[in-house]
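Exercise 7.
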Amino acid sequence: MTDATFHDETHPGGSAGGKLRVWDPLVRIFHWGLVAAFATAWLTADELQPVHEIAGYTVAGLIAFRLIWGIVGGRYARFTQFLRGPGPTLSYLGDMLRGKERRYLGHNPAGALMIVALLISLSGTAFTGWLMAEPARLAMLPELPQIATPAFADEDGEYGEYGESGEGAEGGGNEALEELHEVLANLVLLLVALHVAGVVLASFRHRENLARAMLTGDKRAPDPGDIA
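Solution. The predicted structure, written as C-alpha cells, is:
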C-alpha cells in the first residue's frame, strides 16, 4: 500500500501539499486556552486574586473537557492512540538520547508522558486552589489539619499563637495547603519548560514546526518509517 493510498483511506481530512489534518479544532482550542489560562493564573497569583481564581476555574474546566475528549474525540485526540506503556516509553527516550527516535504523526511516547504529567499536576494545582478559596472546604480533607498541626506546636508540645481552640489546626491546614498549591504550580512551570524544550528538539530533529502544527492542525504526511 502506498503512502498516497494510506492518505486517502485513513486520513480523509488531509490537506493538499503533502499535509494531513492531525489536530482537530477542539484539541487546538484546548491547548492554547490552557496556555493562556495557566499564564494568567501564574501572573495574577499575588496581585489580582479574582482574576487568578477565574483562570484557575478555566484550567479545571479545560482539563475536564480534555479528559472527555480523550475518550470520545478524533483519532489523534484519544488517549488510546498515543498512551504507551513504560517499556515503549523508555525505549523511545533511549532512542532520543541516541538521536534515533522515529517520527510520530500524533503524540510520541515522551509527549504522551508529558501530557499525563501536566494533566495530573494541573489538576492538583486547580484542586488545591479551589480548596483554598473557601476555608470551609478543608473539611473535605480531614487528615490535612492533623498532618500540619505539629508544625505549630512549640518545644513543650503546646500550641503557640493559634491556641488549642482548633484555630491552630485550621491555620496549619491552610498554610500547608497553600504550600502544596505553590509546589504544584512550580512543578507545572518546570514541566512546561521541559515540554517546550521537547517541542523545540522534535521540531529540529524532524524538520517541522510543531508549534505551528498546533495552530493550523496540519502536519507533514508520514514518510517511510514514520509512525502514523
